[in-house]
Amino acid sequence: MPFSRRIPACLLLLGMSSPCVAHDLWLDLEQDPDSRKSIVIQAVLSAKFPKVDEVKKVEDYREPRMMVSGPPVQPLPDFGLEPTLVGRVTTDQPFAVSVLGPTREIDLKLDEAREYLAEEVGLPPGRIAAILDGDAPTVHETYSRILKGIGLRDYGKAPGGLDFGLPIEIRLVRVNLVPPDGWDIKFEILKDGKPLPDAYARILAPARKTQGVRTDKLGSATVSLPRRGSVLIAYIELVSASKGRYETRWTNLAIFAH
């Protein structure tokens, strides 16, 4: 499958709009039309994965990094060379890339926040009620993003050691082929390098409904998908909360195989 198939990788908000609009932001890996050996990386936004509606400017992104087949971590070449260029990778080996996004603040209507906290963050009703202030028309959110993508050379090999040591991160553990046309993906959600149990993640893949899964007591989960070249695993951490305001941190793993 050519690199012209786009890949996903992170949940995000559309500028200063509500997260309940359900736009996803991910690292898109696409073959450079001028070089079949070079992969162009951009942060793209859309209401329907994997369709691309907008390519984001990277002027307020930071710490672009890459690994090729494992450590060491290296700077991602060509970051910011063009307004929307996260970077460029030239390799025939499996690789991982990551970048940190800016911190934003928005006010949401209570119904918007309730839907977002339930469907995107995966909080139970009692926890949501403790955050929302029924006397106020809005709730204040502060959020930040961590975007990560992996390019695999084939479906049957998931290289280990492609972790960047980010505050929260999704680790690809295993990719198994399932005849005739499926694959099982095992992943872990890490916080400060340690597996995070009972963490709620969204799984998106082409022509599939969004799946919601929770990690087990060891911090891992397995999903079965059709083998169509890309998948987005997205997780939102509730960092802190008080009545009428909360802070979230978004992370994702975009997997692209060809």
Short summary of the structure?
The chain is mainly beta.
Question: How large is the count of helical segments?
Answer: 2
How much of the residues is beta strand, in percent?
Answer: over 45%
- Average pLDDT, rounded to a whole number, is 85
User: How far apart lie the N and C ends?
Assistant: 4 Å
What does the main sheet amount to? 9 strands, mixed
Unreliable stretches covering 5 or more consecutive residues:
1-21
Number of strands: 17
Helix content: under 10%
Shape: globular
SSE string, helix = H, strand = E?
A: EEEEEEEEHHEEEEEEEEE
Structural class: mainly beta
Gyration radius, to the nearest Å?
18 Å
Protein architecture, described:
The protein is mainly beta and 258 residues long. It has two helices and 17 strands. 7% of the residues lie in helices and 50% in strands. Strands 4, 5, 7, 8, 9, 13, 14, 16 and 17 form a nine-stranded mixed beta sheet that branches. Strands 1, 2, 3 and 6 form a four-stranded antiparallel beta sheet that branches.
Features:
disordered N terminus, 7% helix, globular, mainly beta, 258 residues, nine-stranded mixed β-sheet, 2 helices, four-stranded antiparallel β-sheet
Protein topology:
Layout: E1 24-32, E2 35-46, E3 54-55, E4 62-68, E5 74-75, E6 87-90, E7 95-100, E8 104-109, H1 110-119, H2 125-131, E9 138-152, E10 168-178, E11 182-191, E12 194-195, E13 200-204, E14 211-214, E15 220-226, E16 230-242, E17 245-257
Parallel strand pairs: 9-17
Antiparallel strand pairs: 1-2, 2-3, 2-6, 4-5, 4-7, 7-9, 8-9, 10-11, 11-12, 11-15, 13-14, 13-16, 16-17
